[in-house]
Structure formats: structure tokens, C-alpha cells
Amino acid sequence: MNSKIRHYLDLIIVLTQKELKVRYKSSFLGYFWSVGHPLAFAFVFFIAFKVVMRVQVKDYAVFLIAGLFPWQWFSNSVNASPTVFIGNASIIKKVNFPRYLIPVTQVLQDMIHFMLAIPVIIFFLLVYHKSPFLSWIYWIPVLLTIQFFLTLGVSLMVSSTNLFFRDLERLTSIIIMLLFYFTPIIYLETMVPKRFRPLVDLNPLAPLMISWRDLFLNGTLDPSFAALSVIHAIVIFMAGYLVYQKLSWRFAEVL
Amino acid sequence: MRESVISFENVCKSYPLYHHMTGGVKRFLFNIRDGLSALRHSNFEALNDISFEIYRGETIGIVGRNGSGKSTTLGLIAGVLKPSRGRVKVKGRISPLLELGAGFHPELNGTENIVLNGVLMGLSRAEVFNKMDEIVEFSELGEFIDQPIRVYSSGMLARLGFSVIAHLDPEILLIDEILAVGDMSFQKKCLDKMMSFKRSGVTMIFVSHAMEQVENICDRVVWIEDHRIKMIGNTRDVISIKASL
Asked: In chain A, which residue's Cα lies nearest the Cα of B125?
């Protein structure tokens, strides 16, 4: 059993290395592209909401960046998930190994990109005369874990189901976009009108993204938001794994 | 009594024809009744009531026309597919369904692909690194080993792929038509390697259209036709009957 787990770990390492190498080998600006996208978004929102619409949020640029980077991880992983199995069809049809390792590597890979982007967040903090917090050392790993399982749950669900309903691919990107605007990233959760406030708690991404932002900007976590995001992560991960379990034995047939 | 390592008991495998669904959710929802019945009834029978046993150390050839169910049989042994009915039992460490270069990525170089492919084939990373020099030497690729494999010729890809396979340590080896590539000297090298696997007691299942190779290597042959076993027996008997038809 032990050797099996070790082999799975080797598989994860090798597959993740492959993705990272491929990504950085073919383009000189590899690292720049993984931070460039959220930075461009931050720039657009800053112009639209701060410069033009004069939204009342302190240090809006760094506020945006603290939320956009973790969001980028989630949305990249989920947007890639419909095709992760299809892209690895040749392995799935030939090699018998747990198929969930493929989405795991996908989410892991995007997590690494996110971690590599944290220095950019620090840079913006410094620009706004703030500094990194010591509490990051223990809270960042906690939030990374929560978001890893939450993202993996969604990814398992989408990637498995998409093999049987290929239309899901198009739906996913639309839903991700809607979800983005329903999540307090470009605005504060306190700006949401009172009667819609409960909906914010129902959005599985909201407490997590609020937690990331609090952590990056103030070095603290709101325990109720953190706890809520743990619950969301557990429920979604279990649901995703269940869907995967139900469908995975047929993957090799439909690819 | 010889020990059976693979046994098929009345195995059936049918695939639902999923492409009826690719009309999309919308069409499916508008014609739910048609959609569901199409899903239920459009099965493709790939294997129909197959039973056989393979014993430890045997080399078995599986022959038959395209689409007769050979690859499905290998897929079932490898555990990639599940039987619709019946039972498949496999004992021992099994190599994955060998296709040369499963998981190869065109942008990575030879060495990186050896690691990727080797781990997918069941080796640990440490084992691959230990055997790296041997593998590279076996492949005879020389300086090309540091080039991204998109610049390789198909023969060179086959060399790289087989070099990894030659350094696996399986108990059961599944081979799906891989010896038809590469130049003569490399084909001979592959064949020699397979013979040495055979001598060391590896059970091999070998799918091929090249009757000559089957005749050279296999002890017994399973002949599948129209998704059933047409004949199973000694290599020479089966091949001579098959040739006379």
C-alpha cells in the first residue's frame, strides 16, 4: 500500500513538472504571463471603478490585487478542467492509474503559479506603505489547503461530467464569469445591499476570497469567514469526488 | 499444475454508443424520450462471452481482424476497462497497456520524456534516474536525447519508447502492436529483449498482425473474430488454420 502511495506521489511530481516545464519552455515570458493576466484585470477595474466611478475603498489597487490573484488560481483551474481528461486521453486509455491525479496536478500547478505571484502582492503592499505580515507564515498554508480542496472538488465535478456532456465546457466559462461578479473581489462585502447579504455566504468562493484579502491587507482572518470556507470546501470536495467516483470507470470508453 | 495468472470467465464487453449524446444537452432535453431510449439501446458489443486462461510464464498472441476486439481484451487485462458481464482476474504486477511513448510530450526532451513515461509505466522516479544511462544507451539516440522530441522521426520515437519498456520489471507485459516500427537492427534488438523477458519468466500478451513475429515468439494464440473466440491453441495449429482460410 505504501509503495502505491509513493508511486502516486511520483506521478503527481512528474506530471506537474511536465506542465510547468512545458509552460515555461515555450515562452520566454512564462512567469510574466501568469502574473500579467490578473494585473491587467486589476488595471482595468482600477480605471473603471476608482478613476471613473470613484468607488470608496481605501488603497483600491492593492485591494484588487489581493483578491484577483487567488481568484485567478481558482478560475484557471476550473476553466482548464473540462479538457484535462480529454487532453490526457492517450494516458487514460492505456495506463491504469487513479484518474483523479490528473485534475490534482492541474490544480497543484495553478497553485504554484499563485504562490509565485505572491511577491507581486508584496510589491504592491510596499508601494502602499504596508508590509508583509508574520501571520502569513501559518495562515497562507491554511488558506492554500482550503482553496486546493475547494478547487479540486469543482474541477473533479466539471472534468468528469464534461466527458458525458461536452456542452459543459462552454457553460463553465460563463458560470465562472458570473461567479466572479457575485464574489466580493472588486467591491467590499459590506457594500452588498442588506437583503442580498445571505447570498454572499452561500457563494462558496466569497468567504474564501474575503479571507485572502483580509490576510494580505491586514494580516488577520475573520474566524467566521474562515470556518465558513472550510465547510464550503469540504462539501464541494466531497460532492466532486462522488461525481468522479460514479463516472470514472467509464472514462476510458468515452475518450 | 500451472498457475493461472489471467483468467476471463464469460466476459462480455459492450460500449454504449455515446455519440448519440453529442447532439448536446439542448437536443437531448427537447427529445428526452428518444434520447434516453437511444442511450439504452445503442450498444456496441465488443466482446461476447469470452473465456480463457493464461498461465505464468506463457507468451500469448492475440490475433484477429481490425475491430474484432483485441484491444478491448488488452484493455480489460490492463484494468483500464471494466467488463459489462463476467469476471476478469489478474494476478501479479502488470505493465500498462504498452503503446510506445504513452504520455510523451513533444516539447520535452528525450531524458524528460523517459522520466515521464517511465513513471507512468510504473517505475518510481528513483528507479528511472538509476536506469537513465542504460535506457539512453539502449535507445542509441546519442545527442538527440537532449532535443525536444518534436524533432524526432517516428523511428526515433519508437526507439525511445521501447528503451523505457526494455527496462521495466513487470510480471505481466501487455504489448499492443509495437514492433512494426523502427529499422531492422532496432526491431531485432526489440525482439531479443522480448525473448530475454520470456526467458526470465515474464508472462507476455502480444497483439499483432505480423504473423511471422507471432509465430516466432508466442507459445499459444488466441484468435478472436466477430467479438468471440474463434480458436485458441498452439501457435502453429492456429496460424496454419488461419492461413488456410
From this structure: A10
* SS3 assignment, position B166: coil
- The tens digit of pLDDT for each residue in A123-173 reads 999 999 999 999 999 999 999 999 999 999 999 999 999 998 888 999 999
pLDDT at residue number B69:
86
* B174-186: pLDDT as tens digits: 887 766 666 788 8
Is B218 domain-assigned? Answer: yes
The ipTM (two decimal places) reads 0.84
Interface test with B, best of A86, A253, A254, A255 (most B CBs within 10 A): A253
In a domain, B48, yes or no: no
Q: Residue B161: which CATH number?
A: 3.40.50.300
For chain B, how many structural domains are there in total? 1
Q: Residue B11: inside a domain, yes or no?
A: no
Range of the domain at A93: 2-254
- Could you list the residue range(s) of the whole structural domain that residue B149 is in? 56-244
Residues in chain B with CB shorter than 8 Å from the CB of A21 are 107-108, 112
Pairing state between β B85-90 and B43-55:
unpaired
Q: Which residues of B touch A15 (CB under 8 A)?
A: 116
Confidence of residue B24 (pLDDT cuts 50, 70, 90): low
* SS3 state of residue B218: coil
Q: In what order do the strands lie in the sheet with B228-234?
A: B94-98, B172-176, B203-207, B59-63, B220-225, B228-234
Does residue B239 lie in a domain region? Answer: yes
Between β-strands B85-90 and B94-98, what pairing exists: parallel, antiparallel or unpaired?
Answer: unpaired
